[in-house]
Each structure stands twice: as C-alpha cells, then as structure tokens.
Predict the 3D structure of the following.
Amino acid sequence: MRRVHNRGMAAWTRRECLRAVPLGVLAASAGGSAPAGTARLKTAICAYSYRQALARGTMTYEDLVRLAAEQGVDGLDLTVYWFPSTSDDFLLPLRRLAYKNAVEIYSIAIRTDMCRQAPEAREKEVAEVRRWVDVAEKLGAGHIRVFGGNVPPGRTEEEAVGWVVETLQRSAEYAGRKGILLGLENHWGITTRAERIVEIVRKTDSPWVGINLDTGNFRENPYEQMEMCLPYTVNVQMKSEVRGAEGGPQRLDWERIGAMLARAGYRGFLSLEYEAAEDPSTAVPRLLAELRRLAARYSA
C-alpha cells in the first residue's frame, strides 16, 4: 500500500498543487500570513547598511558573512550593487563561506524599473530579473527584492499597474521554476501606497510574487499601511527611522511592528537595513541586539 501511495503522490506535481491552493493560502506558505500566534522570526543584516564601505572597497561581502556570524544573526540580505563579479569564481566561494559560518544568504536585492511603456523595454526588465534569478540560485537565495519604478510623465498609475503586473508575471514564471520568490518593495513611485502595491501583487496572482516590506518607506500612517501589506509579505526590512509626512525622521516603534507581525503570523526574516546618521560600525551591532530580542519575543 505504501508504494502505491507514493506513486500517487509523485503524480501530483508541484504545479498542480499550486493551482489547487487559493492565493491567500499560498501567500501564507510563502512567508506571509498564518494563523495568529504562529509567527517565526529570523534575523538578518541587509548589505545596504554598509553601502559606503562596500562602495569604497573597505568592506567586502566576505566581511559581511563574518560580521553576521559574529553578531549572531541568521541571514544576509545581499544588495548586489557592489558585487565585484557574478562569475562562479565569486559566487560559489561566497556561498561556501556562508555555509561554513552557519549564515544563510537568503535574499539578494536588485534594481528594476517595471513601469516601462514600451514592450521592448519590459522585455529587457524581464531578462534582467532572469539573470539575477540565476545568480540567486547559485548563492542559495530563495528571495529577490525588486522595485516597481516610477510612472512615466504623462501616463497614469492605472496604466503603469498593467505594465508592472505583466513584467512580474513573466519574471515569476522563470523565478518559480528555480524556486525563488520575488518581493516587490514599497519604494516610492508606483508602490508609494499600500493599496497600490497590494493591488499589483493580487493582480499578478503568482505564488512566487509577494511584498518586500520596507518598514521605513511609508510616510503617511506607516503602521496602518504596513498592516495592509502583511498578508502578502515575504520579507521584512527593518529600519530604525521613518521619514514622516512632515519631513523629519522619526524613530520607528519596533515593539508595535513586532506585535503586528506576531498577529499576522509572519514567518520569515527581519533584515536590518540601516540608513540613519550614526556610523554603522556602532549603530548596527546595537540595533542587531535589539532585533534579536524582538525576534525571540514575538516568535511562537
């Protein structure tokens, strides 16, 4: 009986399974919402926190791996802007170093602009995402952060939504075949407001597309907008400050965010993306200690 059962299960392919499960359940299994009280939070460092040192060459991505191990965090969210290469000579030793240090390279962050009116321009965006999907696969990363971009002058958001959805759908077809999620970030432009980014993700209707929630990018009613995104969130970037509607930076209430994540049953990484004025060499270790306590407090 067991052998017959196994053959039946083998015939039930992953694609058929994904088609059979409602979108909301897929969002939960991808790292979004789950039943209350079942949150599982892991800590990470976003490479962008050390953008100046990486740009100057005074810090390497290998240094980031060692820093993550020293600070006792679980993962790395690697902004790729300063990669010296995308060849195997760079990527595979970096993956090996991370494994040897028990640090997970779980995400990479790339530049995209999906508000492209011309079909050939959208084709280039899709090709670029596919290129980085191959890089993510070599690093062992299961998530890529992408941007929606800015609405072109003279065009409407409604028109741009269609372009972004098409680009995400075509990109996700390839990413899904590699088992990699695309997280659309709330990052100005077409994704300035939670309502719009949720609309885009819902219309894309792919189990491989969710929201990369940047906690510092909603200027008006930030906590309410974050909460709207949580059912679709596949990665969280934790900022120390948010620039409010009145202009000045305000300290983010991490306890409030942690409680929101717990209520939503979020299971995934909290990646510290530090952008404030203090030197990251002193600010990041202090904030990571706070982040570790937060993750422990609000995990099931």
Observations:
- Strands lie at 40-46, 75-79, 104-109, 143-146, 181-185, 209-214, 233-238, 241-243, 249-251, 267-272.
- The chain has one domain: 23-298.
- Residues 1-36 have pLDDT under 50 and may be disordered.
